[in-house]
């Protein structure tokens, strides 16, 4: 049976104090990732770009931050029941690893279309996988059945205060490492990373604008902002598989009130940006990770002359299925 106290905490909007506590909790189990620059991309964009390399994070993505914060925030009694989630890959991998670090079980509901590399990684960290149809509703229904049977603690991939606070540690590090950023840009899917980014930027650098980058083929966040209400898209078709989720109730609060803008990139632009990062920066990144650079290059007038922090979110790509 789920523990209601933990659930109530998870659905209470986090504050920057929660980000501070998360940084302390996750320090042993995550990397303080480096910030890299590229003269090529500066010239192409007309901006000064600072890339926060979460593709070099534990489990290959920023998701480790939120997962570790949630898992190590459980009481011993709660942890004994294990953890469960739904994920197309990176959050599932991160949760499986975090659970392994604490010595508890993790079950991950994954769409049967998930990249093979991410499926193998979840299993490699000791996670148990339950497959479902590639629809958001199917993910949730399958997870509900898993939890009803096992009593595992649900650690959602984004719509959770513990996860958002953990993700906020990424921008907090970036702002400490690079002074006077005019803009921080990060991808948006379910909204956990951008919500944590807002928390850290508003606390540490209030003048810094927060911009979300979204695939045009999965633009429910942009359309939600335009409509003034949260819109749900069940199965968008985009190469950026990590950004297919729609905003949650909690993350919508941050996006609707605090995100300065949401800009879009087309599929071919995302693939081109991904390839450029591989070629010019010698970094392995996945399509979702390339969306911010694709957005910057498409909307260069927004970023020209600015100091821009760019969160490179992950590098878990299937090397047998590269988009080029």
UniProtKB/TrEMBL annotation:
- Can you name this protein? Serine/threonine dehydratase
Keywords in alphabetical order, please: Lyase, Pyridoxal phosphate
Q: Which GO terms describe its biological process?
A: D-serine biosynthetic process
Could you say which protein family the record assigns here?
Answer: Belongs to the serine/threonine dehydratase family.
Q: Which InterPro entries match?
A: BHydaspDhtse, TrpB-like_PALP, TrpB-like_PALP_sf
Cofactor dependence:
pyridoxal 5'-phosphate
Q: Using the record's annotation, list all stretches that form the Tryptophan synthase beta chain-like PALP domain.
A: 32-314
- List the top taxonomic levels of the source: Bacteria, Pseudomonadati, Pseudomonadota, Gammaproteobacteria, Salinisphaerales
UniProt organism field = Salinisphaera orenii MK-B5
Q: Does the keyword Acetylation apply?
A: no
